[in-house]
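Lecture 7 notes: from sequence to structure.

We start with a single chain of 251 residues. Read the sequence below before looking at the structure.
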Amino acid sequence: MKLSIIIPTFNEEDYLPLLLESIKKQTHQNFSSKNLSGQDFKDYEIIVADNNSEDKTVEIAKSYGCKVVEGGLPPKGRNEGAKIAKGDLFLFLDADVILPNGSLKKFLKELQERKLDIASCFVKPITQNFILVILYNIFYNFSILFLEKIRPSAMDFILIKRNLHEKIGGFNELIKFGEDIDYLVRSSKSGKFSLLKSAKILVSLRRFQQDGWLRTFLKYIFAHFHLIFIGKIKSDILKYKFGHYSQNKKN
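Now the structure, written as tokens:
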């Protein structure tokens, strides 16, 4: 059983090495996990779908043995990565994520035991500030938990079976904002979705710090309501720019 880890990037030379190193540390012993057929999840590949980065992102990806394909905005990058992927499972990650040691095994085991077809997980912000941790739990973790059975939502981490990804036609590349919400909503209608509880991923606070906590939260609430009552966000109404977070220093 093979896992394909797919990462869309644009100018991520500061963050990508942290993610790739954390994947590398998922040792053979920690990573191995039995699937429903009794096989081991021992084999994985990393695919970086890059949007013509102007820094050392591609060089770094190749130095870690990643496959590199031409990407675009996140939905296109994820789809392009999936096209060349060899895995039975896809794990879509944002570049500013870090996987704690042993977390990959826990995620795969839980996916198997709960017989899920698609899943996301809770997130722990990379910060020593206790107040910011509380705010992140309120603005993100609590909101995705509240919406879990109503309107699946997540960012940073999506684990899905290949056949389900192909069944729904992948990510909608026409969507300018909230393509991950649309993807989860569509896939949850054809497969079993849940949030994984066995581990949390670590993630940068850059999007909250640059765009503002309340503004970021309201963007995703707006995206949900827009999807429900109006439709997919195919205009540039929210002025989303891929990669502008990477211009700031790591947090």
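Residues 35-39 have pLDDT under 50 and may be disordered. Keep this in mind for problem set 3.
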